[in-house]
Amino acid sequence: SDARLSGVTKAETTCNYCAVGCRFDLYGKDGEVLGVRPADEDATPANDFSTCVKGKFGYDFVNSPNRLKTPLIRDGDEFREATWDEALDRIHEELSRIREENGDDAIAVTSSSKCTNEENFLAQKFARQVLHTKHVDNCARLCHSSTVVGLQQTVGYGAMTNRINEDIGKTDCYLITGSNTTESHPVLATRIKQNVRDGADLFVFDPRKIGLAEHATQYSRTKPGEDIAWLNGMIHHIIENDLHDEEFIEEKTKHFDQLKEKVEPFTPEKVEELTGVSAEELTYAAETIAKADTCIFGWAMGMTQHAHGTRNVLAVANLALVTGNLGKPRAGLSPFRGQNNVQGGGGDMGPAPHTLPGYQDLTDDAILDKFEESWGVRPPDETGLRLPEQYDAMEEGHIKGMFIMGENPVLSEPDIRGAEKAIEKLDFLAVQDIFLTETAEFADVVLPAASAAEKHGTFTNTERRIQRVRPAVSSPGKAKPDLEILADLAGRFGFDWDYDGPADVMAEINDLVPIYGGVTYDRLESTPEGLQWPCEDESDPGTPYLYEEEFNFDDGKARFVPADYAGPVELPDEEYPLMLTSGRVLYHWHTGTMTRRVNVLMDHVPESFVTIHPEMADQLGVTDNEYVRVTSRRGDIVTKANVEETSDPGVVFIPMHFAHGAINELTQHELDPTSYIPEYKVTSVRIQPLGPN
Ligand code: SF4
């Protein structure tokens, strides 16, 4: 009550950075976020009292003077301020004209995992019902699309199978690969470190000696992009030595013989030759994992962002199945999802060109009937273009209009010079965001949106847990929640959405999306720890870990899908002798639109850098902190050298968060054929010193 008296508001909410989904109380006063305090323990299933530096100090961006406060309309090279009516009318006019002249599929919609579930549901509804285009996608395409499809093919649901606290926090053994967990999912990493201190085994396989490696039972340095070899090698060694879970395989899986045959060539010697991981390390890890009662297999974009990303995920899933580590507590497949709401908004809500909300088949007539009955419009029943393909279609002039909600493709697409050219070819671009991002600079109309600190809604964290988001402050100027903007826009096109807030949108989700059938706002109010999907009706308590009874297939059995070997697309050569890989740092987030506006975070890491092994730095004549030019076949950037031994001398690293020295000037547009994820993780480059500063 003291807080209320002094005009301070407290919101019990969910972090808007990573998908660990930490809960805390966010305090605000007079439109300004004041800070974050730990929440009541019942309401913090993932984090107890902890938060990382981003959760604790990273909300200052909300107060930034650079927030968009009014709609903007392009006027030559500049923007001018506009009213909401003017801006929305303009979008309606331009998109309608493009549709009339070129058909529905000349327009694409990009949705955002930063936004709430309700907003993402409406973004895909705006695409499918209002604009009737099949081209709707979101940033999940660029981070874990290969996880989603790899897990759908093997176990059924494209999601983490287990819980953070009770399972990841209490398992007997970990295999962590392609995840710099301490930097990217700090609170989750703390759980792992605590459990390792209490005796759990931890195996880290990674090209870089990341923070977690310091705590590992064994760290094994891998070569970027060569993961299928060592994963298949582990499976081979386990089967060869009769360490596989025969009963589990017999009762719960199919196609084991196919797997057995496929992994046959991957002897420890062969793996050593392909990956540099010694036979001794490989067999020790394989045997410990196989003998452990429970094991968690954790990964992130080091596994997924490859032109063979789906096969990497299949290989991990095969290993978990061979060792029987599914359908029981303290075990499971744990993709560490990136953004706050990428599981829900990017996946479950279906803003994707190949699936309706809840991963429902968009060619199934009964499902299409259900949506048509609710919306009065039948959703397009063909797969649209995936995000990177949309940029090709823009370049070729097939897509002419684009509506982007909360995404920054001018920094996040691979080969951004190509992406920029594609965007410049559009007849019309509308961007809805909280800042004038690098992408919004290209827009014809910019709409000011509310941040997560200013609205109601839900986020779904990486363990499928749906949690409430609540406002601590009001939005600056005329900015509005994405939900309201989308509803206003739908109205311009003659669709009266008439939602009475996010709870009402969730009621529609309950009706149309079976895995969210029982996730109502009433229940979320009285269930502070949230609900984990599948949660099919009001009496369903939700599903803490998946596949206890059966896998998500008609016959209930998991499938082994053998992973064919593949390496990186681009290998070092004389001209581009170094392998560049990418990742996050603790103090920043994705394209940095929020964290680059927070002084506390910028004080720690103010600019882009390239980490170079001391031996290589010597060879190149580069000293620490000197600016260097990094060049690939796509382009070149200038960035600061950080001379440090984290990888082999031939491997260098650049974080993904910066507009100057942007790594995606260098990356390539090679796509995984199943998930269409780009090969961000391996790029051939050369480095030249630019002399002392
Ligand atoms: Fe937010 Fe993730 Fe940090 Fe938790 S670990 S405070 S969810 S960024």
TrEMBL record:
The protein's required cofactors: [4Fe-4S] cluster; Mo-bis(molybdopterin guanine dinucleotide)
GO cellular component: membrane
Taxonomic superkingdom: Archaea
UniProt keyword annotation of Cytoplasm present: no
GO biological process terms held by the UniProt record: formate metabolic process; respiratory electron transport chain
GO MF entries: 2 iron, 2 sulfur cluster binding; 4 iron, 4 sulfur cluster binding; formate dehydrogenase (NAD+) activity; metal ion binding; molybdopterin cofactor binding; NADH dehydrogenase activity
Domain 4Fe-4S Mo/W bis-MGD-type positions: 8-66
Keywords assigned: 2Fe-2S, 4Fe-4S, Iron, Iron-sulfur, Metal-binding, Molybdenum, Oxidoreductase, Repeat
Family (UniProt): In the C-terminal section; belongs to the prokaryotic molybdopterin-containing oxidoreductase family.
Protein name as it appears in the record: Formate dehydrogenase major subunit
Organism encoding this protein: Haladaptatus litoreus
